[in-house]
Write a structure and sequence with these properties.
Elements: H1 2-42
Length: 43
Amino acid sequence: MGQTTQQEKGDSLTEGYVSELWDFARISVTQNNLQEMREIWDQ
């Protein structure tokens, strides 16, 4: 019984970590795209 709560706790921890990772990836991708667009405009 106590094992399930531990498992659930781990799952929610993983979910939070993954969503933070996605936010970080999305932000860095957006910044890269903006930089590329700027370089294209500058040409």
